[in-house]
Structures are given as structure tokens and as C-alpha cells.
Write a structure and sequence with these properties.
about 500 residues, mainly alpha, 20 helices, globular, disordered C terminus, membrane, transport
């Protein structure tokens, strides 16, 4: 294992080095939170694919393939579909808004103070998303070093917190590009063909396994529908995803770069399911489907390659963890803390407060605080699936309707949006307590309650002021002036 350890060590050291490099570049709020909105198509595509394909997509995707066969690809497949829908239909408009958070978009659209309430819901989602990614370190480091769970979470989480705090989005972007390359080589180009060959090829896999393992719908129609509802729609509205859209240098980059990333996710989904199916042939009696990835890597791959593939799994976890962490900190600082302190009534337009508050330093502090909170929460929680379900149920049940409603329906009002967030969020929480966290009913009924509240209250209250809608249309068209912080930031070479 010495060679494998060396590969992992070099990878982790490289992540920290890129964090240090990013610190030298992130000198304004725009540079720190959205990489100066200067990413070109290649870098944008790679980083977007990296953030959406995390530990759940890699370890969990292989586990679903082990349990259900090829239809186990549906979870990650719906993530790819969501990214494609976001890129084709909404990303260009989102990029032109020139904001930092989803809550700022809601304030611009509705002309009211929807930010704090929606910010709390989005903060809870991003926090739990970061927690689920951080928990996954325990699985990887256990395979590598037979390490205690708590120590593994602290080690992996500390590295992510360190490079994210140092350089913000620039560090995360650079590390995500490396992580994207490592995942592509490790999972698609190495683990996938080796697993299939070790299992005897597709003909042997078909001979050894029941026919339902090769049924595209074998996982069940209701499960697929739930995946679409949670993950496809979740991709449309998550702060972690939108914050990457904000990094694109143009709306064209956001649209086409995201389309490439979404297509890559579809291929990654199928690869994970095939690897899991091969693992079922090789190890038919594993205690848990989630052990399939670690088992096939540990037992079937040669020295060196094993280290690279484990680095790919680590890359998948780190990319999602760091993206969720900076999103969580951005929401906590810009949408909750600053508003509660009464600072900056228009956060999207004012980068520096009148009291000379250093926003880069402030956001850095919030990443550190949220990072510590994520590590402590991850140590306390055991069930990754439940934590991830809570995150997406809150996101979709509470925020899907007011966000998409604001983008496509001009009659929606601020009161309707607030009612939608509150009713949908409370309904989801109450239904999870009643039916259970993993039940499908909470997100089904919570989303319906959110939609009903939005429509009824919007029709019952005065329409949004014409001046607010006019300003909103100007922002959507990209004709609004650049935020002060971005005009003041130093020009730099455009990453391509």
C-alpha cells in the first residue's frame, strides 16, 4: 500500500497548495465568492461536473448498481437531467442577474424582504449537504488507513476547510478541476473497464445475475419519480449549483458549459451502475451495498491504480463538500447575518459596507465557522441517506415553487413567495416526522402545499410593483450596471 499512500498524500498536498495559490488571487468579494465571474467553458464545465458528482454519486451510485443493476443509475442520471435543464432553460438568465445568492434573486424579483426566511431554508440545505459529503471521508480513510471514523472526518474535513477558507471560490475552482480529471481517469477510464473484465465481461454478468439487473426500470417507477422530484428539481434551485453558475464569464458559457457537464453526469451515472453490477458478480454477499465501491477497489485493482481510484473517490467527496461549504457560508453571511445586523439592504449591489467592513475577511471567517460546524455535525450523525434526504426535502418543498415561479410567472408576489416558503417548509418537516424521513410523502405533499400557498396568496395580494418588475427585467436582460465590487476588482487573465 506504500505506493497508494504516496498517491493519496501527493493529491492532498496538492489540494492545500492550490488553496494557498487561490488566497493570493481572491482579493475582492467577487473574486472570493464567484471567482470574479471569469470562468471560461472548459473550466466551468469541469468544476460544475465536479460539484454535482460527489460521494453519493460515486460510492452511492456504485452501491445502487450493486443492489439494483443498471437501473441503479437513475439517481445520478436525474442529477444530470437537472443540470441539463438548468443549463438549457435557466442558467443564462441566472448568470445575467449578477447576484451572489438565491435569496438575493428572490429579493430582486419580488421587491420584498424574502431573503432571511428563504436564506434560513437554503442554509439548512447547504449545511446538511456539506455534512453528508464530510461523513463520506470515514469510508474512504477506513479503506486506506483503517482509521477511526471521527479522526477520518476531522482529517478530511480540515483539508477542505483549509483550502476553502484560504482562497474561496478560486481555490475551490482550481481543486475541482484537478478533482474532475482524477475522477474521470480513476472511475471512467480505469475502474469501469477493470471491473467489467474482472467480472468476466457483460455476457458473464448477464449469466450470473437475475434478468431484472438489466432492466432499465428495475428500480421501480415510484423511486424514479421521487429521484426526479428531489434531484432533478433540486439541481434547478440549490445555492451550491447557482453559485457555480455565477462564476461563468458569460451567459453563453453558463448554458453550453453546463450542458457539457450535464451530459458527462449521464455517462458517470451509467458507469457507476455498471461497476456496481460487476461488484455483485464478484462479491454477491456484501453486508451493505455501499461497501461495493471500497471492496472492488481494494480487492481487484493493482497497486498504484488502487491509490488513484481511491483519490478519485476522495476527489468526488471533496468537490461536493467544498462547494456546499462555501455556499453555506455565503448564505449565512450575506442572507442571514448581514440582514439581521441591518447591514446592506441591497447585498447584491454593495460589496463594501459603509463602516469599511472587509468582506473577503468576513466571508473567510464564515467559511471557517461553518466548516467547524459541518465537521462537528458530521461526527454526531451516522446516517448519510437520512441527512441527504432532509436536505433535499427542505430545498424542494420550501424553495422550488417561489424560485421557479419568480422566473416564469410575473403575477407571483412577495407575500405569495413567503407563504410558499413557510408552508412548504413546515409541511415537509411535519410530514417527515409523521411518515418518516425516508418516506416519499413529505416531498410530494409538501411541494403541493407550497404551490397552493403560492398561488392563493399571490392572487389574494396586490401584484408586484411595476417598477420592481421593470428593474427585474433589466437584470434578466443583462442591462443592469455591474456591482461596485466587480467594477473595482483588478482585471485578470480569463481562465479557459
Amino acid at each position: 500500500m506504500a505506493v497508494d499512500y504516496l498517491v493519496i498524500f501527493v493529491y492532498l498536498a496538492g489540494m492545500l497548495a492550490m488553496g494557498w495559490w487561490g488566497m493570493r488571487r481572491a482579493r475582492s468579494k467577487s473574486e472570493f465568492l464567484v471567482a470574479g465571474r471569469r470562468l471560461g467553458p472548459a473550466m466551468y464545465s469541469g468544476t460544475m461536473a465536479a460539484i454535482v458528482l460527489g460521494g453519493a454519486s460515486t460510492i452511492g451510485g456504485v452501491g445502487l448498481g450493486y443492489q439494483y443493476g443498471l437501473s441503479g443509475a437513475w439517481m445520478v442520471f436525474t442529477i444530470g437531467l437537472g443540470l441539463l435543464a438548468l443549463s438549457v432553460f435557466f442558467s443564462a438568465r441566472i448568470a445575467r442577474l449578477k447576484v451572489y445568492t438565491v435569496s438575493e434573486m428572490l429579493d430582486l424579483r419580488y421587491g420584498g424582504r424574502a431573503g432571511v426566511i428563504s436564506g434560513v431554508v437554503m442554509w439548512a440545505y447547504t449545511l446538511m449537504l456539506a455534512v453528508t459529503s464530510t461523513i463520506a471521508y470515514a469510508t474512504i480513510f477506513d479503506v486506506l488507513f483503517d482509521m477511526n471514523r471521527t479522526l477520518a472526518i476531522v482529517l478530511g474535513g480540515s483539508i477542505v476547510v483549509a483550502y476553502s477558507t484560504l482562497g474561496g471560490m478560486w481555490s475551490i475552482t482550481l481543486t475541482d478541476m484537478v478533482q474532475f480529471v482524477v475522477k474521470t481517469i480513476g472511475v471512467l477510464l480505469l475502474l469501469l473497464p477493470i471491473a467489467v473484465v474482472k467480472a468476466g465481461g457483460f455476457s458473464e454478468m448477464k449469466a450470473q445475475l437475475p434478468t431484472e439487473y438489466f432492466d432499465p426500470l428495475g428500480i421501480g417507477g415510484e423511486t424514479i419519480f421521487t429521484y426526479v422530484l428531489i434531484y432533478t428539481f433540486g439541481m434547478l434551485i440549490g445555492q451550491d449549483i447557482w453559485q457555480r453558475v455565477f462564476t461563468a464569464r458569460s451567459d453563453t458559457t453558463a448554458k453550453w458549459g453546463g450542458t457539457v457537464a450535464g451530459t458527462y453526469c449521464l455517462a458517470y451515472a451509467l458507469a457507476g451502475a455498471v461497476i456496481g453490477t460487476a461488484a455483485k458478480v464478484l462479491y454477491p454477499k456484501l453486508a451493505s451495498p455501499d461497501d461495493a465501491f471500497a471492496t472492488i477497489v481494494k480487492e481487484e485493482l493493482p497497486v498504484g491504480v488502487r491509490g488513484l481510484v481511491l483519490a478519485a473517490a476522495l476527489a468526488a467527496v471533496m468537490s461536493t463538500s467544498s462547494g456546499a461549504l462555501i455556499a453555506c457560508a455565503t448564505v449565512a453571511n450575506n442572507d442571514i447575518w448581514s440582514r439581521l445586523r441591518g447591514i446592506g439592504k441591497a447585498p447584491a449591489e454593495n460589496a463594501e459596507h459603509a463602516d469599511g467592513h472587509d468582506e473577503v475577511k468576513g466571508n473567510r471567517v464564515f467559511i471557517l465557522i461553518m466548516g467547524l460546524a459541518v465537521i462537528c455535525t458530521a461526527i454526531a450523525i451516522d446516517n448519510v441517506v437520512e441527512a441527504l434526504t432532509v436536505a433535499y426535502n427542505l430545498l424542494v418543498g420550501g424553495l422550488l415553487v417561489p424560485i421557479l415561479g419568480g422566473l416564469v410567472w410575473k403575477r407571483g408576489t412577495v407575500h405569495g413567495a413567503l407563504a410558499s416558503v413557510v408552508v412548504g417548509g413546515l409541511a415537509v418537516v411535519g410530514l417527515m416526522a409523521t411518515y418518516g424521513i425516508l418516506a416519499n410523502e413529505p416531498v410530494y405533499y409538501g411541494l403541493l402545499a407550497s404551490l397552493a400557498a403560492y398561488l392563493v396568496v399571490s392572487f389574494a395580494t396586490p401584484a408586484t410593483d411595476a417598477a420592481v418588475l421593470a428593474a427585474w427585467r433589466e437584470r434578466l436582460a443583462g442591462r443592469a450596471p455591474e456591482p461596485e465590487s466587480e467594477l473595482a476588482s483588478e482585471p485578470a487573465a480569463t481562465p479557459r
